[in-house]
Write a structure and sequence with these properties.
By secondary structure, the protein is mainly alpha-helical. It folds into 2 domains: 9-49 and 98-259 and 300-425, no CATH class; 460-575. It is 57% helix and 5% strand. It has helices spanning 23-45, 55-70, 83-95, 99-111, 116-119, 126-138, 140-146, 151-172, 175-189, 195-216, 220-236, 241-259, 271-276, 281-298, 308-339, 346-365, 375-401, 405-432, 460-472, 502-505, 508-513, 543-546, and strands spanning 72-73, 262-263, 478-481, 519-522, 535-539, 553-559, 566-572. Strands 4-3-5-7-6 form a 5-stranded mixed β-sheet, with helices on one face. It has a two-stranded antiparallel sheet with strand order 1-2. The longest helix is centred in the middle third of the chain and has 32 residues, at 308-339. The protein is globular, with a radius of gyration of 27 Å. The model is unreliable at 1-25 and 586-596 (pLDDT under 50).
Length: 596
Amino acid sequence: MSTDETPSSELGRSHDSVTAFGRSVGTRTLAAVVAVTLVALSLRLFALGTRVFHWDEARVGYWILRYAENGIWEYHASIHGPFLYHVNKYLFQLFGASDFLARLPVAIVSGLLPLTAWLFRERLDRAEMLTVGLFFALNPLLLYYSRFMRNDVLLAAFMVYALAFYVRLFDTHKPRYLYAGTLMLALAFTTKENVLVYVVTWLGAAVLLLEHRLLLVGGEDDRVALLRKWGSDLWHARRWWLHLALGLAFFFAVVIFFYAPRARGVPGPGLWKAFTNPGMFPAVVEEATVGSWEKFASKWGEGNQNSFLGTFKALWKPTQQGALPLLVLALVGFFVDRYDGPRPRDLVAFTFYWGFVSLVGYPVIVENPFPWEPIHAVVPLVIPAGVGLAVFVRWAAQAIGDSDGVSATLATLLVLLVVGQMAATAVTTSFVHPQDEYLDDGQTDVNTLVQYGQPADGIRPTLELVGEVARQNDGTDVLYYGSDFYVADESDNDRWAAGGGWYNRLPIPWYTEHADAVVESAADPSQLSGDVPPVVIARASDSHVLDRRLSNYRAYEHELTIHGSRTVFYVHEDALPSDAPPATDGGGGDSNDESS
């Protein structure tokens, strides 16, 4: 991607930022970008551990805890890439497992996204850098899943970082940006399999940019001259062969480190075992590359088996609630940049094509229309959206300078409306109702950012109570009752994949595991006689069986998902702390009523 020419002066775009603004203006712009970044980080870190783990967070978190305990890990495409496994394993070992710490890597990686605007300073003016940073900081969809232990935001962020460093490489010709961009690209490959979709969209966007360049030149002779120039540039790029070779080796070193199996105490190749047995390294490298690639690529073998329109509608709901103003402004930014000025900027066009293709392409390729999927379209569209919002910022500034009160008021109101609506939705979805099915008491405004596997509000005190009881108890701490939860051999849950009804227990296993709880399960009422553990967990539909047998237990009923999964936690009265909450309504008997 070559450096673009100076954008339209009519829109108030600056000169090249190396000499633009003057040194003091550049410093003030950087300070403003840093300030926006601090806001982004603060929003992601504030009360980060408050929301109870989602089903998927708990599933992955449990396997990380088991990996930290037994030192055994191998790549499975169904639970996605190894980045969170290895990073969080070390975090847990150093500081102890918690909801906050598990989400911390995603929060930090995404919270630093506004800084990429500064890397684009040759391509964006100062107003655009700030508006791009604001969208990265405040977009509700991005903010919500930046406070979530999933790979989607990590993947999108790493690809934006990679693009920013590669663009900076073209603008400065400094090799360090090649290695920084390659590191980000390699890390993106360690997050989730749809990085392959990013590669395809990048290639498609690059082809469109080349076509634009050919169309912008005058006649056939000019096009031939341009093609010759490109050929000459490629030929001169041979001077970079050493850096390119080292960059490629660096990419594979990162990928191999993350994807190499860990096999402490079990047969088979393992990364750390190979350091004491170097002859094992070829097998480790093969498994980390060829073996992982076969699993990696197979993840996209089937794609969406449902109708495109139905999947698009399902994905559109969270997109509309979390990013509609961004989409509108992305269109504004793209078309203004394309048609109002001497030439369109590559960065704006590239990111618009990247995001637009993702917006219409994901309904074709996703297996399930989960609300985090639109992130992959929204994140690249932040850049043209920032350009679009900056149009109105400059309009307001120019109107104020021209003493045009009406235009200044309209433009300012538009900017405030967009930023205010974005901030209000972000606060409502991420802080006020982060695990509620509805955003209002009347239950009419559906919270489309919350996926079905999120436990309903109110369950955390009970989960903390179960953990406290388990820490104080000797022997079996938790007994699961009923066919939904039954696992014939609990040791089947020690390594992926778990057995029987284990998945129906989520997110409880994450909380019992980092409380070191000893867990058993039963499917027959006769197993509830004798020495029953202090905590018994069952579906509410089985409470009629348990109420009479657990009369000296206090019952707490909750949903393990948004709805349709009523579950009762029975806790023995003798194990309860003095400040334990009272029993909840529904499920379980009154602990003081011996006849219940």
